[in-house]
Design brief:
CATH superfamily of the largest domain in chain A: Butyryl-CoA Dehydrogenase, subunit A, domain 3
CATH architecture of the largest domain in chain B: Up-down Bundle
Pfam families (chain A): Acyl-CoA_dh_1, Acyl-CoA_dh_M, Acyl-CoA_dh_N
Number of strands of chain B: 10
Strand order of the largest sheet of chain A: 1-4-5-8
Number of helices of chain B: 11
Mean pLDDT of chain B: 97
Largest sheet of chain A: 4 strands, mixed
Helix content of chain A: 40-55%
Helix content of chain B: 40-55%
Keywords (chain A): FAD, Flavoprotein, Oxidoreductase
Shape of chain A: globular
Shape of chain B: globular
Strand content of chain A: 5-15%
Mean pLDDT of chain A: 93
Largest interface: A-B, 48 and 42 residues
CATH topology of the largest domain in chain B: Butyryl-CoA Dehydrogenase, subunit A, domain 3
Structural class of chain B: alpha+beta
Organism (chain A): Bradyrhizobium diversitatis
Low-confidence stretches of chain B: none
Strand order of the largest sheet of chain B: 1-4-5-8
Distance between the termini of chain A: 31 Å
Number of helices of chain A: 12
GO molecular function (chain A): pimeloyl-CoA dehydrogenase activity
Structural class of chain A: alpha+beta
Protein name (chain A): Pimeloyl-CoA dehydrogenase large subunit
CATH architecture of the largest domain in chain A: Up-down Bundle
CATH topology of the largest domain in chain A: Butyryl-CoA Dehydrogenase, subunit A, domain 3
Strand content of chain B: 15-25%
CATH superfamily of the largest domain in chain B: Butyryl-CoA Dehydrogenase, subunit A, domain 3
Distance between the termini of chain B: 20 Å
Low-confidence stretches of chain A: none
CATH class of the largest domain in chain A: Mainly Alpha
Oligomer: heterodimer
Number of domains of chain B: 3
């Protein structure tokens, strides 16, 4: 038993740190630190910077542009990225559709899509949830009916994150209406420019636009956009959701947030002294720090086991990472909100700044927005179901 | 980064698990509790035979030179089986002081600890000290080359059966000063030592100890007689680390038997474990257990930290997590069992009681949380 990194891993960490220090735009870093949104251009340009360095898709197999890093190195990379903070790569391309394509797609698809995903030539979004299919995803209704060499897609997706920027969407569509729920679903790639697609942005409670409804009205999709076998889409979706849970703990982001809380609480006066000196506030923060430490160690256990025994199926214990990771993220946004005190109230549209030193205005929106983290990625109740079933055998 | 046990460590785990499986079931434990000392001398001898009592001592001292992971393995096993023999008091605490003692003191005590013939107790708590290790009113006054001890110690684990009591006493300064605390080896049968033993909530034993003009020689002092708190802090941190591991073992078993129970118990014609409300409670128990395990591992690793502040902070953080997890797992385990959970007749209640008491040993979750908060947290 040994919790330390090897000298080689320490050297690697130093390299990664130096790279972020030299390559992350200072304004972008400041935005992330202040919990403000970054623009589409900033997201794309960062992905290209990473890709140029060869780190755009570190976890992919080497033949498709991956780095061949060990599980521990992947962990170090993401941890350092989150805590710097640098923009997190958008998951829909590199973590979701990419792995599905290189695992189940044909050669033509691999050749065309994978390099474009790695360089973010295309912005991808995820067409899974529907108005009637949330946690019960397999009850989805969007249909893709075969007609000659095409599918005709009809239906509606919802909660589609950043679809307003998207060039492509990967969709679960029902291709066999007579089959049992989970069978009869296919995994289809659809060009967002296709006629018949309408995107309706949904304003979130923070006032920003992050999610959308996507409507499909007789959308014609070439049959070669099917990934893998027809009616096997559910298997691919399960594979993808397993990938999504990896690193959902977001320990590095929470570390950066604790740094922000300490910085703000040190210059916010309360009762004639900095808020950080208030024992009750300090205890609440320390309490969350301890939970974060326990989460970090739990994640290291999962990573070390993966590095040693190979990457098999996702460890059901990783459901712990989702539950605790999301709870801690929510608690920290709550503590940030507490720091703002009365300055939580002013509402400014689109990240506008109130004064030159307006640190407070993005915080209440972030708190509102972060209620999403216990909902998405398989709600925390779904994660408890997974633990009860897969781990405890209930 | 590696969380697996080595081959030798796995063998140690198998051997202690094997021993306890064959000799420490629920009914056997009840018999041990009823023995004269409140635990089984026969089991203690078996621990000695298996080398468990010599684990942390150097080979020069007749031990096995094992590290914190080995102690963790033993403590987890003791926790899983609710073992009441004085391992913490004798080997971790008593042994912890002696490992830092002089060659003569080691030679006088360690062979007896290792072969099972000597047990120790640590008498530190006082009526007003609560969890503050430096709050010491018991006095040690210079007397020729030795000392005279006066005062009253309370709730010393296994203090009524130990042959030797390790006592903290003030040699200089005010009651709460960090400087001026000495650590003394006092024979339980020394003149002026009055010991009153009693049962504890979790089936173990403890004692209140009065010291009236107890004379000890200079050879009774462990370490610097005016700066003993340095050693006390380290040894008590070792005990906290061991308690974390014991709690993990107890929680592991509590989760296991609770899950087994709700799989079997039928109401409304089905196993109650098929109800989602209970499944989610069980899933939360599992999460509490595993996060506690993570912190117990970290605490054991911290045992070798050379930065003593970092070591103390890490152990405190672990004790907070363990205290909270243990409370949730203990309470939930009883709750999932229903009525039988609040009786003496079933195992779960005993795990609940032990888990509850662990939080009250060497600082509860709130105490350690306040320590961490006061020093600016643990995330950098």
């Amino acid at each position: 038993m040994d919790l330390s990194f090897s000298p080689e891993e320490v050297a690697f960490r130093d390299d990664v740190r130096a790279f972020f220090r030299d390559n992350v735009d200072a304004a972008v870093r400041q935005k992330l630190f202040e919990t403000r949104h970054i623009t589409k251009d900033e997201q794309v340009s960062w992905q290209r910077t990473l890709h140029k360095k060869g780190w755009g898709v570190p976890h992919w197999p080497v033949e498709y542009g991956g780095t061949g890093w060990s599980a521990v190195k992947q962990y170090i990379f993401l941890e350092e990225l989150q805590r710097y903070p640098a923009p997190a790569p958008l998951p829909f391309g590199v973590n979701m559709v990419g792995p599905v394509i290189y695992t189940f797609g044909n050669e033509t698809q691999k050749k065309y899509y994978l390099p474009r995903i790695a360089n973010m030539d295309d912005w991808w979004c995820q067409g899974f949830s529907e108005p009637g299919a949330g946690s019960d995803l397999a009850s989805l209704k969007t249909s893709a009916n075969r007609k000659g060499d095409t599918y005709i897609v009809n239906g509606q997706k919802t909660w589609t994150t950043l679809a307003q920027h998207a060039d492509w969407i990967f969709c679960l569509c029902r291709t066999d209406p007579t089959a049992r729920k989970q069978s009869g679903i296919s995994f289809i790639l659809i060009d967002m420019k296709t006629k018949g697609i309408t995107v309706r942005p949904i304003q979130m409670i923070d006032g920003g636009v992050e999610i959308n409804e996507v409507f499909f009205d007789d959308v014609v999709v070439p049959v070669e956009n099917l990934v893998g076998e027809e009616n096997k889409g559910w298997d691919y979706a399960k594979f993808l959701l397993g990938h999504e849970r990896v690193n959902i703990a977001r320990v590095g982001i929470s570390k950066a947030r604790i740094g922000r809380i300490k910085e703000l609480a040190a210059r916010t006066m309360a009762g004639g002294r900095p808020l950080i000196e208030d024992p009750l506030f300090r205890q609440k923060l320390a309490s969350t720090e301890i939970e974060l430490k326990a989460l970090e160690l739990t994640q290291m256990r999962v990573v070390a086991a993966e590095g040693k025994h190979g990457k098999g199926k996702p460890d059901p214990a990783s459901s712990i990472l989702k539950i605790k990771g999301s709870e801690i993220q929510q608690t920290l946004t709550e503590l940030l909100l507490e720091v703002t005190g009365p300055f939580a109230l002013p509402f400014l549209q689109d990240d506008a700044r109130n004064t030159n030193d307006d640190w407070a205005s993005p915080i209440a929106p972030t708190y509102f927005n972060y209620r999403k983290v216990s909902i998405y990625g398989g709600s925390n109740e779904i994660q408890r179901n997974i633990i009860a079933k897969a781990v405890l055998g209930l | 980064m590696d969380f697996d046990l080595s081959e030798e460590q796995r063998l140690l785990k198998d051997s202690i698990d094997g021993l306890l499986k064959s000799s420490y079931d629920f009914d056997a434990r009840k018999k041990y509790l009823a023995e004269r000392d409140g635990y089984s001398r026969a089991i203690w001898d078996k621990f000695a035979e298996q080398g468990l009592l010599g684990l942390p001592f150097s080979e020069d001292d007749g031990g096995f030179g094992a590290g914190p992971v080995e102690t963790m393995i033993v403590m987890e096993a003791l926790g899983r089986n609710l073992v009441i023999e004085p391992y913490l008091d004798t080997v971790v605490l008593g042994g912890g002081f002696l490992r830092r003692a002089s060659r003569e003191q080691r030679a006088a005590y360690l062979p007896g600890i290792i072969d099972g013939s000597k047990t120790l107790a640590f008498a530190q708590l006082e009526l007003d000290s609560r969890y503050d290790l430096g709050d010491v009113a018991t006095s040690a006054k210079k007397n020729g080359s030795g000392y005279v001890l006066n005062g009253e110690k309370v709730v010393a684990g296994h203090g009524d059966t130990a042959g030797t009591i390790i006592i903290t006493a003030r040699t200089a300064g005010g009651q709460r000063d960090a400087k001026g605390v000495g650590v003394f080896l006092v024979p339980a049968d020394a003149k002026g030592v009055d010991i009153r033993g009693y049962e504890t909530q979790d089936g173990s034993r403890a004692a209140d100890i009065k010291l009236a003009n107890v004379e000890v020689g200079a050879d009774a002092v462990i370490g610097d007689v005016e700066d003993g708190l340095l050693i006390v802090n380290q040894v008590v941190d070792d005990a906290r680390i061991a308690l974390c591991a014991e709690a993990v073992g107890a929680m592991e078993e509590a989760v296991k038997i609770s899950v087994e129970y709700i799989k079997e118990r039928k109401q409304f014609g089905v196993a109650i474990g098929s109800f989602q409300a209970l499944q989610h409670r069980a899933a939360d128990m599992f999460t509490a257990l595993e996060t506690a395990r993570s912190m117990s591992y970290l605490a054991s690793m911290a045992s070798n930290f050379t930065d003593l502040n970092e070591r103390a902070k890490t152990v405190a953080a672990a004790k907070v997590q363990i205290g909270r997890s243990a409370r949730f797992v203990g309470q939930s385990g009883v709750h999932l069992h229903g009525g039988i959970g609040v009786t003496m007749e079933y195992r779960i209640g005993h795990y609940f009681k032990r888990l509850t008491m662990i939080d009250h040993q060497f600082g509860d979750a709130d105490f350690h949380l306040a320590r961490i908060a006061a020093t600016g947290g643990i995330i950098r």
